[in-house]
Design goal:
alpha+beta; about 20% helix; eight-stranded mixed beta sheet
């Protein structure tokens, strides 16, 4: 009896459900959308219904693969410093060189200078010097390197799955790397934010970029502010960097001036004394990652010819000895001319008067490689239009920094045929913006623009320029102390070269990369 009652109950419920479905069907059966759906092939409907399920399974699989790729991956919290895998190709497909084949007089990172960092008789990617990720050398004749293409370990959101979700699934956008972490607002981004001055007698110390400007460039001030505060500033009239009192920032006077027409104060080596033009032997302005002022290194000493302490007249002389000495990884120079060479640094002591410490060389290794998402011109020049930055346009100095952050530089040293090729590319695919290139009037050649990374003049062929008649007033020493920089703009139905004040926020970066 109870079984019969249950059967009747279930039958009643099925009848009520069928009646409800029939009611819904009668309501929508003449709707246009229902007619279209009901006429589709049932196999197609089944396939459409399976898409969300398959999509979800694919994402889960990608996350699982990324999370379990612990073999060849790098720990980004240590920038890959502990990576000991066997990856031996770079992001751009270049073959890595064996670490033991390097020339210590040419390459800055060698086995003897970086012991216990995974270097050896192999060509596997490593990061012994604290670069942003694992890398390797790619040339026996140049200090050239490229980064290796390895995912991050243990965090799928920084590897394959994150790339898929951001760039294919569309559930997010890659976060652009900001420059604000290194530079304060309103400062000059063209040069490094901190520099060290050594062997200048009266002006040694650490200098920081300020938000002050002089003649179109930022002003550095010595770290310890006192009555004798000194600054490094640009004198636009004669186009030289001056080291002197901050009250004279931008003026032609001070302790000394940089003879070369360097873009940044550390781009030249010849400093002359103010007033006498006497050569300031041994004076050097460099980035703080190379030399540390008033810092003493302690550790294991290198013994050379039975002596653990040598004598040199300058800190640069001591650095040269370290560069030439096998196993030397660092040095400390004292004003009394003692030069201590170390093959291991165990401790640093700061605020030690009249000392300079640092690495064996201030030369930086050079990034090479042309990634697949870049453009190779007809002359095999590797370039990239950075159309994901500077939405409203940025200054030429900010554009330079954007390129340098990516291991490149503003497009430079271009011949006529290269300029024509790039103008055509810009006109065809990148005419939605203006583009800064690496030419300016800083060489003070009246009426001429030159490329900053070489002494080559920019071609003044009329077909390349929007208007060559405006060149008359550029590059001259006179009242106009602001720099003019070259950019690509619209003209005559295409793209042409033009020039504008370098501080104007009007264009995006056109970057160039060394292919090999």
């Amino acid at each position: 009896m109870s079984g019969q009652t249950l059967t009747e109950t279930l039958a009643s419920k099925r009848s009520a459900l069928r009646e409800r479905l029939d009611t819904i069907h009668r309501r929508v059966q003449y709707e246009p959308w229902f007619i279209k759906v009901s006429t589709l092939d049932r196999r197609l409907l089944l396939a459409i219904g399976c898409i969300p399920v398959l999509f979800f399974i694919l994402i889960i699989a990608l996350i699982g693969v990324a999370a379990g790729s612990g073999g060849d991956c790098q720990n980004m919290s240590k920038r890959g410093a502990d990576y000991r895998g066997s990856e031996s190709r770079t992001k751009s497909g270049l073959e890595c060189l064996a670490w033991t084949t390097l020339d210590r007089t040419l390459h800055t990172v060698t086995v003897d200078r970086y012991p216990d960092t995974g270097l050896g008789e192999h060509n596997y990617c490593r990061n012994p010097d604290g670069s942003k990720q694992v890398w390797c050398y790619t040339s026996l004749t140049k200090d050239a390197f490229d980064y290796c293409d390895l995912p991050a370990c243990g965090d799928p959101w920084h590897s394959t799955a994150r790339h898929f979700i951001n760039n294919i699934a569309g559930s997010g956008n890659p976060v652009a790397q900001t420059l604000a972490g290194r530079f304060r607002a309103n400062t000059d981004w063209a040069c490094q934010p901190t520099v060290t001055v050594v062997h200048s007698v009266r002006a040694d110390g650490l200098y920081l970029m300020t938000d002050q400007w002089a003649n179109g460039r930022g002003v550095y001030a010595r770290q310890y502010n006192d009555i004798n505060t000194l600054c490094i500033s640009w004198h636009g009239l004669y186009r030289h960097w001056w080291l002197g009192p901050c009250t004279l920032s931008g003026a032609n006077g001070g302790v000394g001036w940089l003879e070369e027409d360097g873009r940044c104060p550390y781009d030249g080596r010849i400093w002359r004394a103010g007033g006498t033009d006497r050569l300031m032997k041994g004076t050097l302005v460099t980035t703080n990652s190379c030399l540390e002022f008033e810092t003493e290194y302690n550790g294991t000493l290198v013994t050379q010819s039975g002596q653990s302490v040598l004598r040199t007249d300058t800190a640069i002389g001591c650095q040269t000895l370290c560069q030439q000495t096998e196993t030397c990884v660092a040095f400390t120079w004292y004003e009394r001319r003692n030069c201590t060479l170390l093959n291991q640094v165990t401790d640093r002591r700061h605020n030690v008067k009249f000392t300079v410490s640092g690495k064996p060389s201030c030369k930086e290794k050079v990034k090479v490689g042309c990634p697949s998402d870049h453009i190779k011109t007809n002359s095999n020049i590797c370039i990239k239009f950075l159309d994901q930055t500077c939405d409203q346009g940025c200054s030429r100095y900010a554009a330079m920094e954007e390129c340098e952050q990516r291991g490149g530089f503003l497009a430079d040293s271009l011949e006529e045929k290269d300029i024509k090729n790039i103008l055509q590319l810009a006109g065809n695919s990148y005419n939605h913006s203006f583009w800064w290139v690496g030419a300016s009037d800083m060489r003070k050649r009246g009426g001429k623009f030159s490329w900053e990374r070489s002494d080559l003049l920019v071609s003044d062929m009329a077909v390349l320029w929007r208007n060559t008649s405006t060149h008359v007033g550029v590059g001259r020493q006179g009242n106009n102390t602001l720099h003019e920089c070259v950019f690509i703009t619209h003209a005559g139905g295409g793209m042409r070269l033009d020039h504008q004040n370098c501080q104007e926020t009007i264009a995006r970066p056109l970057c160039q990369f060394l292919p090999s």
